[in-house]
Each structure stands twice: as C-alpha cells, then as structure tokens.
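Let's sit down with a protein and look at its sequence and fold side by side. We need material for that, and I hope you will provide a protein of your own picking. Once you have written the record down, we can walk along the chain together.

***
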Amino acid sequence: MSAHDCVWSDIFDEQSRTNLQFGFLITGALATVAGFWLNSVLLLTDLRSDRSYRNLAFFTFISFVRRAVSIFNFLFVSNNYESVSCEFFGFVETFFAVYEYECLTHVCIERYVVAKYITNGWPIQKNHYILFQGSSLFFSALYAFPPVFGLGRFGLDFSCQSCILDMVLTETWDRYVTLTIFLLRSVKSTGFIVTMLVWARNLEAKFEASPELLQQKNFTESVVIMTVANIMCWLPIALIRGWVLTSQVLAGDDLVKPSATVLQFAIWLQWAAPAFTTAAMFFYDDRIHKKMVGDRCNKEELSKKE
C-alpha cells in the first residue's frame, strides 16, 4: 500500500502537509529530549529501587522509545509501505500504542492497590508488579492481533505516513470488530484509570499522618496530574477517530474528513505527551524534582559553605 492509495490524502495540501511534518518533527524532538531526561532520573538513580517509580518507568520509557524511533525513521528511514506491508507497520504501531496506554492504566491501578494494602495492613506483594506488566502485554496483543488474523484490518492513518487500525469501515460484519477494538482500547482503559485514581484518593484520605504515608499520597497526586495531562494530549485525536468511525455507522457509510488544522493540532499534541509527562513530574513530584535538579543544587550549596 502506498500513500497514493490513502483515502485521507486530500485532507492536506502541499503546504499543510509540510507544516504537519515540521510540527511532527519539533514535537517529537521535544518529547524525546524531555523523555530522555525523565527516564534518566527514573532508571539511573536510586528511584529505580522503589517499585512504584519502577512501575512508572515502564510507561515513561515506552513513551520515550516510540517518539525516538519515529523521529529516527522520519529523518533517516523511508516508510515504504510497498516494500513492507502496512499490516506489519500497523501491528507494531498498534501493539506499542496500546502498551503505552496500558502501562499508564496500570500505574493508576498500582496506586489503588498500594492504598488498599496499606489501609488493610497487608504487605505489598512483589508479584503484583509482574502481573501489571503481564496484563499490559496481554491487552496489547489482544487489540493488535485480530487484524493480523482477518478480524478488522490495518490502513494508513490521517497523515498517510503510518499504519493503524483502519478507520474506513467495511460493509461486512468485521466493522463491528473494529468498533469494539476502538472502544475497548479507549473507553475501557480510561474508565479504569479514572476509577482507580478516585478509589486510591478516597482510601488515602483515611491515612494516618506519617512521612511514609504522606510520600504515598504525594506520589498519587503527581500521578493524577500526569495522567490528566496525558489524557488531554490524547483526547483530541481519539475524539476525531471516534467521530469518523461513528459517523460511518450512523450516516450510511458517508466518510467524513476532519480539517487539516484540527488534525495538525491533534497529532502534534498527542506526540508531545511525554514532554507534558516530564513537566508534570518535575513540578509536582518532589522526589523526581530533587533528582532532576535538587541534589545537584544542594551539593553546590554545601561546597560554597565549605
């Protein structure tokens, strides 16, 4: 499949497509640099010994890698869908996109599990963290494999530069497979995220005052802010895709095409999400903030006093 076969090719004219690619490069580079900074702190400092921060690092690392690899491909590798099938690119993109969202979902689930165990006086089980990643990989495969076996299909996205779950519904029953996958990927995970964070905050409100429990509450607060920032970044493109799919069901298969300006904004915002993650954790998580700048500043102050 080539870009010439893309049904969305007439959305962008030559100038708007150039703007889209330039914005993609800028936001991707910003997200890559910010993601590298945050992951360096999570993986190369003593924060990696904390299971909660290590669980967070799965999400931040896959977010960083997805942007870094895409920027590398954009600059140095041609996405030639004629030599390598769109099904391959679509599977890889879908698997890791779902894995990213599932990792964030399980960061929020972990907050509830920790709060529940602390409230009941139970010791935290290490195998839960293995289960979190196992569950993330399971759902990633669950949503990425059906089109490989003919249940739904992959196709070029709005930009005609990458392959995702095809948003052009067929006239057969597998259109409902596509709609189901889309709803489970977005609505199910978002519902879990909101529910787990609300339950975690309610349980933490009952915590006794202590430095250890206060640290747990502060981490949950930073996770809430980070999660809201990411959902706001992903929401525009998810709503656009949902609108396109729903309109085909309700409007007799008429294919609506969003405006170039709206798509540019949605694509750029989604791709910049790791930068917002880094900003949220930098400003609202004391331990990460100190590792980013505080420890170095404290050492400089001590050296001046000496």
